[in-house]
Amino acid sequence: MENTGSEYGYETMPKSRDQKRHDMVKLEEHDGVNFFDLFAVLWRRKIMIISITVFAMIGIVFLSIISIVLPPEISPLPNVYTSRAFVLITEARAPVGNRETLLGYGSGDGFRRGPTYASLALFLLRSNTLLDSVIDDLVLLGRYDYNGAHATFTRGLLRDGLGPRHNRDDGVLSISFTHTDPVFARDVANLTVTHLENRFVELGLDRSRAEQERLELHLAEVFQNILFLDEERRRLEQSVAFIPLVGGNLPAIMADINRATMESEAMRQVYTQLRVQHEVLRANVAAEIPMLQILEFAEVPSQKSGPSRARICIIVTFVAGFFSMLLAFALEAISNIRKDPVAMAKLRRA
Question: Is the dihedral of CA 197, 199, 202, 204 positive or negative?
Answer without folding.
Answer: negative
